[in-house]
Amino acid sequence: MASKLSTQPYRGTRDFLPDEMSVRTQVFSQLYEVIESYGFARYDGPILEPIEIYEAKSGQELVNEQLYRLTDRGGRELALRPEMTPSVARMIAAHADTMAFPVRWYCHVNCHRYERPQRGRVREHWQINVDTFGTESLEAEVEIFEMIHRLFHAVGASTQDYVLRVSDRNLVQNALASFADVPDELMKGVFAIIDRWEKYPLNVQQEALAKLGLSDTQIERIGQLVTLDFTGYLQIASKETLAHSNLARIITEELIDVPILFDPLIIRGFEYYTSTVFEVFDTSPDNRRSIFGGGRYDNLVALFSNRRIPGIGFGMGDVTLFDFLSTHGLLPQPNNSADVCIMPLHPGVRTTMKQVADELRAQGIRTVTPLEEHTLSKEIKDAARRGIRLAVILGEEELARQHVIVRDLTRSEQVEVPLSELVGTLKKKLSDPTG
Amino acid sequence: MASKLSTQPYRGTRDFLPDEMSVRTQVFSQLYEVIESYGFARYDGPILEPIEIYEAKSGQELVNEQLYRLTDRGGRELALRPEMTPSVARMIAAHADTMAFPVRWYCHVNCHRYERPQRGRVREHWQINVDTFGTESLEAEVEIFEMIHRLFHAVGASTQDYVLRVSDRNLVQNALASFADVPDELMKGVFAIIDRWEKYPLNVQQEALAKLGLSDTQIERIGQLVTLDFTGYLQIASKETLAHSNLARIITEELIDVPILFDPLIIRGFEYYTSTVFEVFDTSPDNRRSIFGGGRYDNLVALFSNRRIPGIGFGMGDVTLFDFLSTHGLLPQPNNSADVCIMPLHPGVRTTMKQVADELRAQGIRTVTPLEEHTLSKEIKDAARRGIRLAVILGEEELARQHVIVRDLTRSEQVEVPLSELVGTLKKKLSDPTG
Question: CB pairs below 8 Å between A and B: how many?
Fold first, then answer.
């Protein structure tokens, strides 16, 4: 006997069987609906991209350690996209001349990163990206923040289940410079440490800051800044910085009526973010995790175009989202079974069976017919095992009277109905959630 | 000024901008609906797969010349999937023990092949795969053939626009052996030549057959076989071969009421097909092309499992499908614009604007609000340019009376309506396709 190939998917990737796929499809449809209700239009793009589009602004860890790279037969160096923002910036730059800005776009794509698989981390994940291009207006931030709340509500979450933490890199950077004397050339290093602030104990962070060459006073002041609330930043920041901060204006002018929490610890890994950054966290003690985040990236399109086209958006990954939904008991039931199984009692009724099946399918009723001959009791058992709710049993005697039997496989009850009333009977039973 | 990165997608891959994406989404939704009406359930799986799953049965050209290969940091040799059937066979094998066969599955995935881009050929294409596992019954063939017709009708095609050409490799192989004396070891080579029969003139094919070592008599007889109709095969084939051919039984016993055309030229490239093969062709003189095809592969799951699990299915690629739809004028209009744009005449109505927007969105009306302040005339011009059909204009005077103005941007007409009647008015106008 020849040895068999492994049936497992490649490590860090996932097979989505129909039950799981159905749950995912239901959740994603709800999210698409909210996103489209805000006038965002869906786009898509290739998985393979030139390496260069990540090298400039996606961050060193991602480019050096996490990219899936390959070289094609023509010698082109490619990557499986690790994230979508550089691709969409490329597409916007390509078509900017024919667009009416601002544009609102979204997509749902898979991205690859070479990571050690663990809870919340896989190598291939799916991500909904939502982006607004072509405006520096704070209304873009307000719209995105509001939509995030609507998205959570659409999948059944309450405002208590998550918290939207927001910051402005400029505001924090100015405070680091003016209050903690952090020189420009160390800013990137300090940001990287603040980005992981909650992951390690204070003394580890202090040592890391000292290693950058910062003094005890500077380190102490950084420690104050990372826990400072918005009022504190208002006192430190210059008028000019505040006037240019969309986030500061949104908070001080009370321009938003959904909850946001100012938190200087929010930095985000991508280097392309320029000012506003945000991240949504699960509030459950079982899953105190970042679910997803985003920010404003006003210079990313500049990699591809001389036109200045600011952008703001977020990428919502499936793994952390479904961990959140599962933690809060918000996953819907699978809904991928056929609705009706037709069961002919005799080969002679095959033509009638096909006509009935055609009619039910045309009415949007998911209908299966038997591919093999089995006894009625095996057909019923199999159909119930597949989660099919109703059987239409075709007997010669009933058909002679233009009747069929409709059997409820959940309740094991059956009724005889005229063929002319079959569609109505089935639709009524299917729309009754109690079975 | 730094030099800019290219805005073009990688050669042979495509960016789908919102207009095109909307057309695609509409077409695919219609196809999903038909497939699901037959009780097929959607699944999905990873893009990266171990190379081995293609090496055994996908064909040498594909494996040696067309695979996008990469090696991960752990030394695993991977491919970007060039087709889905080996992946789904792997998944079925992995979960066979908990399944009630037959199972009906479908997916919609992207696949990569390194090819020279040309009309109908790209390097990344999207493909709907439909497969039935776990039955050798001819009813599986009948169902797939019927569904193919329904799929074409669902997207607006008539039976005259395409032809479903079908064959049985066993029937043809037996005829090649008995009528043309082709020895077993040359069968694969002869099949490869028949597969490309229509692409080259007769003398080229005859030379290719001679190169395999076949005699003039054999070559002449092969020439007869490739143009022989089904009645001819009925005369050549043994009773046993006919009894074991699902296709021969479907035709002779008249078990199908949609048109199929027996054609021994249909071979299909994949080596895993075992008997029934089929391919749909465009009948238009402008596009006499294969649109897609499939077949029965009763031994593919055996790569992964000791259980015998027959399979039959097809993969419908997007490029040839959309060429077909475009040739026949069947592409729908894009439908990705927002429905309504709200235009506040004064910053003071911002709160009302947000409430109105929220209400419209909750009612499923795609609604945009301005991110920047512009004059009303610029707002109207921009909205019309984006294909938005209706504007809701919020003036202080009208709002004082709890009224708003609804402007039809297509007709440049407007009416004043009470706020309480706004949703109804908009829904009525949006449901009227004449504008």
Answer: 243
